[in-house]
Design brief:
- This protein is mainly alpha-helical.
- The protein has 4 helices and no strands.
- α2 packs antiparallel against α3, α2 (about 30-55) runs parallel beside α4 (about 90-120) and α3 (about 60-85) runs antiparallel to α4.
- The mean pLDDT is about 85.
């Protein structure tokens, strides 16, 4: 089938693959920092917006689900960075290690916020 395609189409596929590979190479060490920040921001903003908008909507099941989604995003980013620690060298290894540690720290923050949403009443009045 490749013989039937023009050289321009085959070249475009190769260029696209090179761009994807380059992006993965550049972002892998930073995945922990990006994932942790995004997971925590999502968990915090969605959870607090629900409580402030209508406190009756923020029941424990919804708050746990929001916390689990935030934890999953942070944990995935941390895992990607942690796996990169063994493969990278120099500054990229340091960034990978810091990203994995940030993911762990932000995961603790997400967990504590989720527990707080279960312990504290959503409506105070």
């Amino acid at each position: 089938m490749a013989a039937d395609l023009s050289a321009d189409l085959l070249g475009a596929a190769v260029v696209r693959r090179e761009i994807v590979d380059r992006a993965k190479y550049l972002l892998t060490p930073w995945a922990g920092m990006l994932g942790a920040g995004f997971g925590w921001a999502l968990s915090h903003q969605v959870g607090s917006d629900l409580v402030q908008d209508n406190c009756n909507i923020a029941n424990p099941v919804v708050m746990i689900l929001i916390g689990v989604v935030g934890l999953a995003i942070a944990a995935f980013g941390g895992l990607v960075s942690w796996r990169a620690v063994g493969r990278e060298e120099g500054g990229r290894k340091f960034v990978s290690f810091v990203g994995a540690l940030m993911a762990a720290l932000f995961s603790i923050a997400i967990f504590m916020q989720t527990v707080a949403s279960l312990l504290l009443p959503g409506c105070f009045g």
